[in-house]
Amino acid sequence: MTPHSPEAAAPALRVRDLRKTYGNGVEALRGVSLDVAPGDFFALLGPNGAGKSTLIGIVSSLVNLSSGSVEVFGTDLVSRRSEAMRLIGLVPQEINFNLFEQPYDILVNYAGFYGIPREEAGPLAEQELRRAHLWDKARVMSRTLSGGMKRRLMIARAMMTRPRLLILDEPTAGVDIEIRRDMWRVLREINAAGTTIILTTHYLEEAESLCRNLAIIDRGTIVEQGPMRALLAKLDVEGFLFDIDGELPTQLPEIEGTTLMAVDSHTLDLDMPRAMDLNRVFAAFEAAGIRIRSMRTKSNRLEELFVRLTGQKEAA
């Protein structure tokens, strides 16, 4: 591939008017179109039944499309399926490796399935296990690994084929925040090294923390897509938490257009229109004798956007 070839300029993923109707008549996708740029970290969000799993299933060739087109780095998924699939790595939600194999063998055997000779697969396995912070566990029984280690092992396995596009389907579902953050570190390293990542998740905090762009799908259609920051900027309400020096007054100040409440005796929660001057808030605090030690934005803005666009209380 030359720098000026069509493939070099192509999106990592291009989906056009993608439709899927199952045998029972259910329309899972109703004309989905989206682009994912090379090197992006992209989130796909949506409630249960929205079409996320069907879309990922089609892109990873686990589900047949009804109509439309899918291209991976300019390679058509239908007419050049084998070529397209060599560009993709998939990390499913379920743990699906042999728990009685060692991590090193799991990776080498997986590479062999894709035609990578054992003499090449060995060094690759070491490299990926080190990146996943699992090299010291290379020769233990996989069933002895912690939940977070098993998840990282699945990512390492997917990376053995050197995919240019890594797809993670709800990779942190059902795991605690410590394991999620452990995986985030690994995924950031993989993305920084040049691999495009598409993440489906129902943890909105995860999408906001990791992803630069996103699409929200609901009832088989894309209801919003674009840069994370631009979409969040559409919200006309902004939330802040204030840490207070000393005790709060018995009566909190009333600031027109805002919602102010005490979280505890030293923390205030404020929602205000984005267009409002924050100096009005500080002036009201000062007049009420409230001394601000620090402030931070609330992290639920993506959730607000999701509720607004889909009417759902949470992405799942």
Tags for this model:
316 residues, alpha/beta, Rossmann fold, Alpha-Beta Plaits, 2 domains, six-stranded mixed β-sheet, four-stranded antiparallel β-sheet, 11 helices, 28% strand, ATP binding, AAA+_ATPase, ABC_transporter-like_CS, P-loop_NTPase, ATP hydrolysis activity
Description of the molecule:
33% of the residues lie in helices and 28% in strands. The radius of gyration is 23 Å and the shape is globular. The two termini are 39 Å apart. The strands form three sheets. A six-stranded mixed β-sheet has the order 6-7-8-3-9-10, sandwiched between helices. The protein has a four-stranded antiparallel β-sheet with strand order 2-1-4-5. The chain has two domains: 6-226, Rossmann fold, CATH 3.40.50.300; 234-310, Alpha-Beta Plaits (2-Layer Sandwich), CATH 3.30.70. It has eleven helices and 14 strands. The longest helix is centred in the middle third of the chain and has 16 residues, at 177-192. It is of the alpha/beta class and 316 residues long. Residues 13-244 form the ABC transporter domain. GO terms for molecular function: ATP binding; ATP hydrolysis activity. It comes from Pseudoxanthomonas suwonensis (strain 11-1). Pfam families: ABC_tran (PF00005).
Shape: globular
CATH A-level architecture of the largest domain: 3-Layer(aba) Sandwich
Q: What string gives the helices and strands in order?
A: HEEEHEEHEHHHEHEHEEHEEEHEH
State the total count of DSSP E strands. Answer: 14
Ends: how far apart?
Answer: 39 Å
Q: Tell me the strand percentage band.
A: 25-35%
Q: Mean pLDDT, nearest integer?
A: 90
Keywords: ATP-binding, Nucleotide-binding, Transport
InterPro entries: AAA+_ATPase, ABC_transporter-like_ATP-bd, ABC_transporter-like_CS, ABC_transporter_ATP-binding, P-loop_NTPase
Protein name: ABC transporter related protein
GO molecular function, one term: ATP hydrolysis activity
